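Protocol check, entry for the methods section draft. Step 1: assemble the input record (protein sequence plus ligand SMILES). Step 2: submit for complex structure prediction. Step 3: store the structure tokens unaltered in the notebook. Ligand used here: flavin-adenine dinucleotide. Step 1 record:
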Amino acid sequence: MTPTKSKTLECDLMVIGGGIAGITAAVEAAEMGRSVMLVEKEHYLGGQVARMHRYFPKLCPPLCGMEINFRRIKNNTLITALTGAAPAKIASAGSGYQVEVMVEPRFVTEACTACGDCEKVCTVEAPDAFNMGLTRAKAIRLPYEMAYPYRYYVDKSAVQHPSLQAAAKICPAQAIDLSMQPLLTTVKTKAVVWAAGWQSYDAAKLPELGFDVLLNVVTNLQFERIAANAILANNKIVRPSDGAPLASVAFVQCAGSRDDNHLPYCSAVCCMASLKQSRYIREQYPDAEIHIFFIDARTPGRWEDFYVNVQDDPKTIVHRGKVGKIEAADNSNLTIIAENTLTGNLERVTVGMAILAVGMEPVRGAKELGLPLAFDKYGFAYRNGAANVMPAGVAAGPKDVAASVQEATGSVALALSAIGRSI
Ligand SMILES: Cc1cc2nc3c(=O)[nH]c(=O)nc-3n(C[C@H](O)[C@H](O)[C@H](O)COP(=O)(O)OP(=O)(O)OC[C@H]3O[C@@H](n4cnc5c(N)ncnc54)[C@H](O)[C@@H]3O)c2cc1C
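Step 3, stored output:
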């Protein structure tokens, strides 16, 4: 499809990435009176946090906090949120930047009321990336239950399917436009915040842990979706292979982290994420056995209380040792093999399911776009002389939500003070 070109737009600040860091940067700047273009490549805002079932430390659903931010965006005319959009080219222009933003077609217009009639008529499915490859979904769908914008989109791989033509015909708001084309928008901005976040380390690179072959081995982010989907459907969390209740589960910490062959660094949140996920299981299964295998638990500052509480649970067994192998014990169960680093003994524990605590890798692209940022050897960004280009959130290094929010606020303050000096 050839993109249509739109007129040139202008803003004080462009924020690239609509996760919690980017959203924070956008609302903080707009509430200081600056015009903001928030550019998000998915058809929804929220980033990885939107995928979480609950988040630590309070274990509340992430959408509690997100919803407030979505309202701040909706009510602030200084923010333009472009979803399905990503920068294609960035060039210096005077003291700021000219950015070519490619906006992918959503095939559903702002007239959509999310009534869901289209979904009933649509008979074609496509993989649902929001669920990390665990499920398929109708090709016309809401991104997630509380998505912003609260509007359907069409998976472009299925746009030609006849049932989508039928959906377009019956849409009461006439909001489905299957002829939409990509749009290339030129934006002149005085400053940029890079908040493109993270992706999970690819568990397929750890064949000894069986991720590709054993159905009951999942990643920590997949487990967030398994838990969230179960609760949404008023069901219990069950294991993937056969829908059996969870009788015993192993958490494999540092799966590919703090390992020179994979990610040499600590992702800072995986210990807390696993301790949190062990609570999801415990709430539903008071008798389930939970085994946590770790090199050492990293729960800094006030997160230590959380760790101590989990340790008080007599059915949570903490093993000091990195897991070397996971193999099938039978058709469904798994044997976890680890060397206990305190005793030197090889431990073999049979469980029903294993959750790999894989780390966070930075999303790449800033360097290729020519953004004047520097990058450490792992690809995390840091400031590089240009005061009006700042990284924020996990794009600048592994961190939790609270730290991402703090950093985003600081980045905006610095970027805006640089603009202040240049006008
Ligand atoms: C399993 C797990 C559980 C966790 N649980 C918790 C928890 O309970 N509590 C907590 O505090 N923290 C938790 N974290 C950490 C938390 O997920 C991060 O702190 C948070 O996601 C950081 O937000 P971010 O905005 O920096 O990045 P992201 O959430 O990754 O958002 C980045 C956004 O940028 C977009 N993007 C990427 N590239 C482009 C591009 N080129 N153009 C436009 N947009 C782009 C992405 O689509 C995404 O929407 C957990 C982490 C893991 C791994």
